[in-house]
Write a structure and sequence with these properties.
mainly alpha; two-stranded antiparallel sheet
Amino acid sequence: MKEKSAAKILSKPRWPRIAAWVIGAIALIFIILGIYWSRPPDIFWVNHTIDDERIVVGYSSTDTLIRVAETMLDKPGGYLSNDRMPPSVFLDNVPNWELGVLQQVRDLARVIRNDYSRSQSQSKEDPDVRDAEQAFFIDANSWIFPASESEYRKGIEGFRLYRDRLVDDADTDAQFFARADNLREWLAQVEKRLGSLTRRLGDSVATSRINEDLAGDPSAEASNPQPDRFEVRTSWFEVDDVFFEARGTAWALVHFFRAAEFDFAHVLEDKNASVSVRQIIRELEASLQPLGSPVILNGSGYGFFANHSLVMANYLARANAAVINLRELLDQG
């Protein structure tokens, strides 16, 4: 009887145990990859000069745009926003970080097309910049026909051609006009992005806000009736999404402001505004300090637990205030 029982035990199928071990191993691999892929890239040093130590106006901004876009695509795990397979499909923080970076790449690319590369509104636009700028505006979640990465690499290649033409003395068609009015155009875009992010980060604790859309203009009108209050509280499930979008925005802007510090050095010196750019960079760098928590905490403003969104909003608000001050300095004659 005992021999039959032992034989019965030995004859039990082993595939459930093997399947459990395989599933566990795959899950462990996914967790390790997820943690590794979720680490944001380090800040890199902006190139000020070409290999032969020659300085060309516009080289820093264009080269930095290329390198920021390449880092977004080539970081560990690659570009994850349009991935449909695990573990990428489970990582929502990285795609939101990529969204923040991509938005800044798009804004700077558009300003280069419309302002930096043209002397005036009636000037002919640069064909390489035109095609490159358009490539960055494809849907960030497109995974096939065409894939987002392939289009963004076309944009990178277009700006690389423009950059190489800038440093070619024989090519007089490629230009970069480092003027105060051109810099103001880009700063206006940055101001709007930072203002929106600051409000969205603050909505992690706010419940409603007063409608001030028509404030300051007694004759202003809206197409639809406007309520007196808006419900603005950010969902608990979306707090980390806004936070990492803000982190991606700040990461890209650190590089772009460093590049502007080089390309617009004479303009900033003439307006005595170099210190304003340094202050903006300092606030943005402070917003990128490493997280000391494995999750994004959303405590109340004066509660027991931290609120990472409010801390991020504080840094971005201070950076935005410095951007506004810089624009005012550039407006002065």
